[in-house]
Amino acid sequence: MKEAKMDVSAYLKRIGYTGLLDGSAIALAKIQECHLHSVPYENFDILNRIPLSLEVPDLYDKIIIRRRGGYCFELNAIFSWLLKELGYKVTSLFARFWRDEPNAPPKRRHHVLKVEAEGKFFLCDVGVGGIVPRQPIEMAEGLVHEQGDEFYKLEVDPYFGWMLMEKKHGDWRQIYSFTEEPQLPKDFIMASFWCENSPDSIFIENAMVAIRTDEGRNSVDGKEFRIFKNDSVQTFIPATEKEYKEALKTYFGIVLDN
Question: Could you tell me if residue 49 is inside a domain?
């Protein structure tokens, strides 16, 4: 476990947040959006067979000090720490990821957060590589949230609990579901170990990298970089390993350890 001093101000500087810290829902939304624009989703440690630690001091060292990213079990764990330090009441929950699931129902392998602000509860999540809400979603059934050109809402399934939905081409589609049973940090260890080591895990196959930008988002699928700006997309494959690492630094701020 790392012994680095964990400093809230350094975390806020890492994500570029300079607003009020008043425990409000507005501040919560801005903090989450800053996080998604600053800390990339990425699975390079898994690909490089570096065992992950979900201990908060280790995550702080990786994500805040070394300015790396991570995946849901890492990103939402460290984000939970930040929100608690800022005075929010946070509960960790387990989710089933339905989007692009070939063998439904999916297993529980996604960490999400239930956060209380101003007497209301919100779904917060900074740990998805695909397109998901950039701001918290109030936990009220059927309430539609418009975020730019994206639309989201929560429905309730009698078996799977809350279901986060997205509107695509006029239709509402499932993203992930979760129940409200509180989870301890150790409850995510087995699921994360499966994601790191199972031959059936998507995380061991190819590089998966993503980050929000002011113009859209940047992503990597294997070797291919995709730079989305407004309604256009630029794709390219770096010719060499050096160029690949330079592109990671340019578009995601990631510097891989040698």
Answer: yes
Number of domains in the chain: 1
Q: Is position 257 within any domain?
A: no
CB 118 within 8 A of CB 93: no
Domain assignment present for residue 234? The answer is yes
For the stretch 12-28, pLDDT in tens is 999 999 999 999 999 99
Cβ contacts of 151-159, under 8 Å, gap ≥ 24: 154/123
Domain interval for residue 106: 8-252
CATH of the domain at 217: 3.30.2140.20
Task: Give per-residue burial for 49-74: e unless 16+ CB within 10 Å, then b.
Answer: eeebbbebbbbbbbbbeebbbbbbbb
Question: pLDDT for 206-243, tens place per residue?
Answer: 999 999 999 999 999 999 999 999 889 999 999 999 99
58 by DSSP, 3-state: which?
helix
